[in-house]
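P.,

For your records, the input lines for the assembly:
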Amino acid sequence: MDFASFLIQLLNGVQYGLLLFMLAAGLTLIFGIMGVVNLAHGSFYMLGAYLSWSLSSLTGSFTLAIVLGAVLSVAFGLVLERLLFRHFYDRDHLDQVLLTFGLIYIFEETRSILWGDDVHGVGVPELLGASIPLTENMSYPVYRLFMSAVCVVLALGLYLLISKTRLGMKIRAGAFNREMAEALGVNIKLIHAVVFAIGVALATIAGMIASPISSVYPNMGSQVLIMCFVVVVIGGIGSVRGALISALLVGLVDTFGKVLLPHLAGMLVYMLMAAVLLWKPEGLFRQ
Amino acid sequence: MSTPRSHLEVLPRSLQVLLAAALVVLVAFPFIGTDFYAQTIARMMILAIFAMSLDLLQGVTGLVSLGHAAFFGLAGYALAFLTPAGEPVSLWWTLPAAVAAAGLAALVIGFFVVRTHGIYFIMVTMAFAQMVFYLFFDNKVLGGSDGLYVNFKPAAVLFDLEDKRVFYYFTLAVMLLVYAFLRRLLWSPFGRALSGIRVNEHRMRAMGFTTFRYKLAAFTLAGALAGLAGYLWGAQTGFVNPELMGFQMSAHAIMMVILGGMGNFAGAIIGAFAFEYLLLWFKDLPAVGAVDLGKHWQLWMGLFIVILVTFAPRGLLGVIERLSRRKEARDE
Amino acid sequence: MNEVLLSAQRLTKRFGGLAAVNEVSVDLWLGHIHAVIGPNGAGKSTLTNLLSGDLAPTAGNILLGERDVTGWSPERISRAGLGRSYQKTNIFLPFTVWENVRLAAQSRAPHAARWLARADRFAATSERASRAIELAGLADRKNRIAGTISHGEQRQLEIAMSLATAPQVLLLDEPLAGMGTAEAERMVQLLLRIKPDHAIMLVEHDMDAVFALADHLTVMVNGQVIASGTPAQVRADANVQSAYLGEGVQ
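Structure tokens returned:
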């Protein structure tokens, strides 16, 4: 493999990993802080993709679509948390699995009713449509770099929020000891709502920015959900740092695997997960 | 976050009577119902076996697996691979072979998966099952997304499984055998240990039980029994595809077990029948005006699941139990 | 001279930079009750968890009889002859008292994994369970659901379960926790009854019970042993007096 191809695969792997991180971070935060497992997390990704398609057709601007979509997803997350998820924080994991599985059905069918079952494409915005030449006949799309950049910015934002702001401090306090935090005057209900909304927004935005590359199709939610689960299992539940490292690892293994070992491609990531499980059954960075 | 559930293990007299009556109906059905409905009932019985196998894992041992359908599907595929294009294959060796294959897969996957706990267990079972799904989905050699056909029902020599009535009674017999076996298992030392693991695994270890081995044994046995159901499914429908192994199928099985009430196997049978009936009912809904209600069955099913888990998490048996307790309190 | 059934030598457990247990040595003799006392946070629970295998020591060893059981899993140590009861009641709440103890007894049976015979038909297991229930004074509560009996009875059940595995060494973690006077007295009598046949380590806060029961006393503060000897010796020890008078340990 020559250097240019290697660089391309490396960039692709990192980009895929960062995208997975957006999803895994939300999932692991929601589980780490509220103790809720959400099988419908992939549906938010799908929702993001469909939103970007219809909003960009509606407004004619991809950027506007992203901004609008982000706002809508935060609102959606807050409503969902208030109406439904809030009542399941203290329930069995089994009940949560069932609830969120039911939600998958509801979301899928609603998507089918609102947007149909066809596959759609979303155009890459003109500004980002160029490609950076690497060699005489190979170049790298600027849009993919943009995707990675957005993920990095959001990841940084999340890090700053959690470790440097008062809100972040309250979030960490609530995760550590709910009763104590409440006794100290932290509005736990608000914290939970905010964390949930952040998780939903991250997943939705991931879907939105990925849509020009991945297209918009019915099964995209469940496909990405599995990868997301693998990332969280490898990284360790509740650890955002673990999710980042694990997501990059999975992204690189999957991308290089498809190129170097095409027959094993689909299985490589699971083999990685199996190996991690033998060594550390609770993930690499278990809290 | 997970609290151990106290289950209904001893069936109350009223329920026993109900089950006996249902058995009579099941035995008589092929003679009183149409062929089509008999086939539907046979399919429900196959799903009941699948649900009972999951009940062993989930209801008794407390392990919530989102990957149980992998073993169901694998056995169906085993039958498809073993059945040649032009003639049937013998029931008497392919059935044990398919069940053994499913059991072996469960043993291997279980070895990795059983060392995890709680939410991890749920996630890794889902991941491994999807791995199996994609293995079949992506490879033309294994049938790909189109699946495989089972051209002939297995040949039993002593009886003819191509005869729908014979197949019905064969399935009924298998279901009853599995039920009897699992009920005995429940009260055996092994079954008591599994229940103990569900309620308090930490104490079981402190008392000297190597819980890993017990859980792995339960996982393997449950996988093998799921394979038994999968073999019958492949034989009955004549067709297997990767969807049979996916996490949606696993989630349906979880629903069946919850719906009927976990931990006593009777609930699994009730739940399988009820869930499948409900699914068919949703799919058969008529068109109202311009809206085809049946087409959107996933929406109704999703709403049903959400409502069920919010208000009746212990399923039908839980509701019956609560009502009978309230009646007792009133009668005093 | 009574034999030493358990010997823990210079046990240390670190969590990050903090040593919760620091160079602690404990010996348990057959027929003796060795009490471990100390203020909250002294490391007594951690010590108990180290001895039962729930935690692996950072340094030090544990000898059960002749065998080095350092780093063994809890189930292996249990099968080697060690039993424990818990400070926070750790029973099977939905099962009957009988089933709780029967299950504990089952752990010692070679048929523990049999699949088809009824569990309650195994005479040896049932007998062992009956004896443990008798010893713990719970015979008339056999058929009650464990979640419905009183707190004191649940503590007795804790003991019954640890007895049913026929251990030689018993680690009892605050068996009198939350008990009223009458219940506590019953528990003290129970412990005196089982004392001759076991080597017992007793972690307790109830000083009346400790001085009534202990043959040997070890005092822990901040993860370290500050005194160890007969109750009389320990009472007179200057370090102990200053620790309990709140002057701290230098």
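Two observations worth noting. The mean pLDDT of chain A is 87. The radius of gyration of chain A is 19 Å.

Regards
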